[in-house]
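Duplicate of #3305? Posting structure anyway:
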């Protein structure tokens, strides 16, 4: 029996008040979709099966390099973070897995597994961290100031490799099947490091990490254009990332964090290319306006999110073979992180549902006839459809809330944990 930090009776009462309207909205949308030859129940089934992992570091308040403004009741460690993740899942029913970051979330693996099992959660890809120093870790005395996996000093590289191997070992004990490697390595000045030799050293380190992967594990390498390095970054773009994945072999795949590209980059085209290359490993979903803003998925440019899903759905079986993993990677500075994550998961599902509504046969026909207007209209038609009744139905049928943010506010969870968890100073877990 799963223990839920949200009273199921509360969700039932919440839904009882809204059920009639949802049923009417669902029937009305179903009628309109059937005129387009679409079976609403088939769409709802696919949406229900679609899940996205939440980042452990996302349930604490984030920050910028200028300041962090902690919210009330922030989780003080990984076990309280898991409690918050269970709230997100109880109400939204789209996020049954959590992605951990080591050493931020380091704890006894048996206890981690036990707590997650009790809460009905599981673990998605693990994340290693060699982008900051870990002075309290006796296994990591050397500094990553000038890099980690690509560092000029072999001893630092070996330490960084060993940290990744340890992260895999923890992940293996808690049922994860993948590790995501993102490094901050790069330079601030031309001439600071040799661009070619740095990359060679990185590849050599990654080969050692791949050699430590269990047979059923995958490794995702995550590219990012800049930050913390501002002149050059070792794993800077999807071209570099593809080279890496091809070099490292069949267990290696590229991870696309939507915030890690230059503004206006055509990310959906990158996704299409990586599917063609059979190297799309997964996503870190978020939204951005200027850089790696880590804003809530779909909050700035929902059309772009839809276009990414349009590529995924359009790829059909080619994508099924890749089974990319879906994770959120966000930093919540001004909202309650639980609310942001509930909403983001729903926005990601919305983009998926809308992409499922694209009339693909018609689209191909318009494309082949060079009918630019109707090709565009075919996508817009799907994007313009209000699929909220489908999303709400998927939630309710799985035991979640029709309006999960309203139900969360009604639950008083934040006030309850604020009383139990004294205000944190710098903690909350997360990158500043
Ligand atoms: C780097 C990144 C990467 C890290 C996370 C905290 O910007 O996207 O995925 O692990 O942020
Ligand atoms: Mn990321
Ligand atoms: Mn990022």
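Output from current build:
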């Amino acid at each position: 029996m799963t223990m839920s930090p949200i009273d199921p009776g509360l969700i039932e009462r919440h839904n009882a008040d809204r059920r009639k309207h949802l049923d009417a909205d669902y029937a009305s949308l179903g009628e309109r979709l059937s005129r387009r030859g679409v079976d609403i129940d088939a769409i709802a089934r696919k949406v229900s099966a679609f899940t996205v992992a939440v980042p452990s570091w996302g349930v604490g308040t984030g920050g910028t390099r200028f300041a962090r403004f902690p919210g009330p009741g922030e989780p003080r460690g990984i076990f309280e973070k898991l409690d918050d993740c269970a709230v997100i899942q109880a109400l939204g029913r789209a996020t049954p897995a959590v992605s951990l970051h080591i050493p931020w979330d380091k704890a006894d693996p048996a206890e981690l597994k036990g707590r997650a099992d009790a809460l009905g959660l599981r673990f998605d890809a693990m994340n290693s961290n060699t982008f900051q120093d870990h002075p309290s870790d006796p296994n990591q005395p050397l500094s990553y100031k000038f890099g980690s996996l690509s560092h000029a000093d072999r001893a630092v590289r070996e330490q960084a490799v060993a940290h990744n191997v340890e992260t895999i070992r923890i992940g293996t004990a808690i049922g994860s099947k993948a590790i995501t490697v993102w490094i901050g390595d790069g330079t601030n000045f031309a001439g600071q490091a040799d661009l070619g030799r740095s990359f060679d050293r990185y590849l050599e380190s990654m080969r050692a990490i791949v050699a430590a992967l269990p047979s059923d594990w995958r490794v995702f390498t995550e590219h990012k254009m800049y930050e913390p390095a501002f002149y050059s970054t070792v794993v800077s773009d999807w071209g570099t990332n593809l080279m890496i994945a091809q070099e490292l072999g069949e267990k290696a795949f590229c991870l696309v964090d939507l915030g890690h590209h230059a503004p206006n980059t055509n990310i959906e085209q990158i996704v299409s290319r990586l599917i063609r290359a059979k190297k799309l490993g997964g996503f870190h979903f978020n939204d951005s306006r200027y850089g790696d803003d880590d804003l809530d998925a779909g909050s700035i440019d929902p059309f772009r999110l839809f276009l990414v899903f349009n590529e995924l759905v359009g790829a059909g079986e080619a994508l099924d073979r890749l089974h990319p993993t879906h994770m959120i990677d966000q930093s919540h500075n001004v909202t309650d992180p639980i609310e942001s994550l509930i909403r983001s998961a729903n926005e990601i599902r919305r983009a998926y549902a809308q992409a499922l509504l694209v009339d693909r046969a018609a689209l191909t026909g318009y494309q082949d006839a060079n009918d630019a207007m109707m090709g565009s209209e075919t996508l817009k038609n799907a994007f313009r459809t209000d699929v909220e009744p489908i999303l709400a139905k998927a939630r309710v049928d799985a035991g979640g809330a029709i309006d999960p943010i309203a139900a969360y506010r009604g639950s008083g969870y934040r006030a309850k944990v604020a009383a139990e968890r004294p205000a944190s100073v710098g903690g909350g877990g997360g990158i500043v």
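Confirmed duplicate; merging threads. Residues 57, 127, 182, 222, 224, 257, 284, 292, 329, 431 surround 6-deoxy-beta-L-fructofuranose (ligand 1) (CB under 6 Å). Residues 8-35 form the longest helix (28 residues).
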